[in-house]
Amino acid sequence: MRAIILAAGFGTRLYPLTKYLPKALLPLGNKTMLDYLIEPLEKLPMVKEITIMTNSRFYLDFYTWRKNSKYTKPIYIEEDGVNIPEKRCGAIKDLQLAIESREKADEDYLILCSDNFFDFPLSHFLLPVLSHPHYGFVGLYDVKDTLEATKYGVVQINHEHRIIDFEEKPTSPKSTLVSVGVYYLPGALKHRLDEYLAQGRPADKIGDFIGSLSRDEHVYGVEFEGAWFDIGSIVSYEKARKYLNAPAD
Length: 249
Fold this sequence. Notes:
13 strands, Spore Coat Polysaccharide Biosynthesis Protein SpsA, Chain A, alpha/beta, 9-stranded mixed β-sheet, single chain, about 30% helix, 8 helices
């Protein structure tokens, strides 16, 4: 299994904090947001290597971070050739580029969005994955509020936890279960990603692809408990800092 961390966004909603620094490298306490994702990946024996997909503007920032890190697993930094937000590829296209950058036969993918902080164990997510590796999986969190759910990708599951509906930022959510930006894509379903993009469908939000995939294939949800912050704004960033008792600059 290869872990892919999607970090090619420009974080415009976090300006001025991310004007010259990628969102994933923002500090939370004495670590970066990225470190909170890499550290648990280091402990997972089934994850053999990690690919970080970024843009051209911030490539050197991630390269420097990797050079100064102490992690033992191979970490590869890839960039999508984009320098300005207006030209961004979109998360789905960036995922395809990340897979193709080091694609191997019989390889499966654990996909993480870099703008999320959570404190539940990834091993919990991977337990059902390892039991059913031919199906897709999505990490879910119950925000317990319909208005709050409108900000995210909202998921409905049946009694078997199979996803029966996935809708990005609906005005009238059908549930309060939302995607936390943690996905498992078996290599056998990688062609679905290629088909989706070949059809010229929207490439910006990965939830659109997952929603499409769940209509054609078995995709299951794994509910997480604990703390979760989707760090897309200064307000949510400060909430995460407060949760970690991180002092203000």
